[in-house]
Amino acid sequence: MTKSGTAAPRLSVYQTFKTKNKEFTGEAMRQRGIIMHLVAETLPTKKTRTAIAHKLAERNGTTWQNIYSGIFRDLDEILLPLGIVEESGRLPIKRGPKALQEQGVPYYKLTEGGLLVAASLSEIGAERLGIINEFFEKNSNSKDKDLKKSVLTLLDIAPNFVSLLLRRYVESYSEGKIDKLIPFDSDSVKKALDESLMIQRELLEGFSSLSDTDKEPIMNFLKKVG
Hints:
It is a single chain. The chain contains eleven helices and two strands, in the order αααβαβααααααα. By secondary structure, the chain is mostly helical. The chain folds into two domains: 85 residues, Arc Repressor Mutant, subunit A (Orthogonal Bundle), CATH 1.10.10.10; 94 residues, no CATH class. Strands 1-2 form a two-stranded antiparallel ribbon. The protein is elongated and about 75 Å long. The protein starts with 25 loop residues before the first helix and ends with a helix. The mean pLDDT is 87.
């Protein structure tokens, strides 16, 4: 809880229905939609609240007015306070209230943490490489000099592993197991590891120690069951 007694904002991109744990809630889908839209668009005019609402409404077969309030709330009460999204600038307008004309309409961009969340989403395909590269270009963390090389190498040879790693990392943040998305370093990733990732690490370490003769039947077995 915050000092005012209200619940602290919580990222919901992996929130599922209690009775349907494989189906994302409406809030999760909106937040995923916002993040995916901001990572894909480059024009400021396409990154305002209204532009985001129009795009998500078109995708979901509804009117932008129906989802605008939800998008407003997701941005102002969750994504902005958490530092997933930040204001990138303001666009001047000629109509509407004088105060709004003077202040302009805000448009948004993803932060370092926002790029990390975007890279973890299942909707991302071949774009993941570009997003992760952009993240590491902006990431000022110098503690783990080998982290970038390791992740990019794994992305090339085991993209599903990287996808799982990033998902568990973002889920751990959403669940409060880690306090911050940034810095993204070995210590933070270690806290986010669950049993499935530890099993994969064990398999990798064990497999790499085998001779070529011993590796072949294991590979054949894994291909058959996978």
